[in-house]
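Example record for the data management plan.
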Amino acid sequence: MAGRVWRTARRGHISSRPASGPAKDFMPDYLISLTAPKPLAKFFKGERHFTGGRFLPTKVAEKYGLTEPVYEGIDQIREEEVGGEDV
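Corresponding structural encoding:
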């Protein structure tokens, strides 16, 4: 059986888990962050967290002071530390 997946998306600034509503108790097994881990990822308590894609041009990252994930070789995904504070 495939695990549940929680995808982070940039839809406004989200910095805390929902206090109420249908998503308040939702915690998937896997988290897939596109481009870079988002602030909400620090609340993730599932099994594995991945960052996928090399979508952020270096000039854009530099302009906004963003830290680009380091991918090994030509990999398009990397595994993040679950519960890491460096998001």
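Summary line stored alongside the record: Helices lie at 58-64.
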